[in-house]
Automatic annotation (TrEMBL):
It comes from Streptomyces subrutilus. It comes from the Bacteria. InterPro entries: P68_RBP_TagC-like_beta-prop. This is P68 RBP/TagC-like beta-propeller domain-containing protein. Residues 107-354 form the P68 RBP/TagC-like beta-propeller domain.
Amino acid sequence: MAAAGLGSATGTARAAAAGLPASKLIRVEGNTGPAYFREETLHEGTVLQSIGFDNVNRRLYVAQLIQGGRKLPGESAAVSGATRDLHGDLSITEWTLGADAADGSGTGRITGSMYLRGFGHGVSIGVEPSGSSTYLWTEVDAVQDVKNGTSRGSRLCRFRFASSATPLDATNASLQKFTPVPGSVNNTASIDPITNRLVVRYSLGGMRYRLYDLAAARAGDFTAPLAEIAEPAIAIDRARFGYPSFQGYAAAGSYLYLLHGNSYGTMQDHDKNEATPEILISAPGEGNTHLTSVDLNTGQIVRTFHSKAGYTLPFREPEGLAVQIPQPGNPEVYRLCMGFASGETGGQRKASVYYKDSLVQP
């Protein structure tokens, strides 16, 4: 688990003139990271895609693709998993977190779920507390990628979580929809609960991030991004780990955190040379999961680290990042949570969350 070293951004940053105020940094390096919970069953049998915390109302939200064979109200027949993926049909599971420890740990229980049709892949979700309610920010208006059998959202939307078996369609008039960056595609969102900022990841000549004041974004004002950076390319041992898939992001203060990795057993043509054989890039018990911290004021990588959190999980695919405040009355203490999918192929997938909570003042 050696640190992979420093990397460099693939573009320049555009931040407010004064820059973002410096904040504490979550150390991505270190030990394997403790488990918040391990191998819990979600509403669907598919792998989780992303996670997000309502730190006020003590809830956790998990996004998944709807499993194959499910027939929703209003549908004439059951729909395959491949079709759900292509159409961008998602399921959101709500967990109410337990309170069996002072630090806010405890797995809690499932207290609701809802279906979203035509939204996207669920790469990231933003979770916004509002009184006793929770609003979610997700991708929406899925654009189909027929070649790869999947889809991605072209815009963002905001809606109140309401548990129901009746699906919420992307065409529903109740959705607040936004296009933060005109001409962009592959839009997803995350919320920084430390500063109440909206983070938007989008593609426009490459993957990029913009940071906005959450209240302004909620009102539809995206004219003054607080920061803008290009997504940096992580520097790792390609002969050992290949090119890990992007699996999630989260922000806390003046830092952005990225998650990359693949499930155990993944093979890849790591050198892009068809004459050489594929190599194993995610070995069981080791994996190729990497956590990266990025300075939002410069766009430069602070650290990239090979994480073995949850290394004993079967299958083990990293999926989703989120920032949790364990004790709402103490927002100066927070942690970076990593989602992992596990379980045997063809069976009910399980969800685990591990975290990093070592904070340093750079």
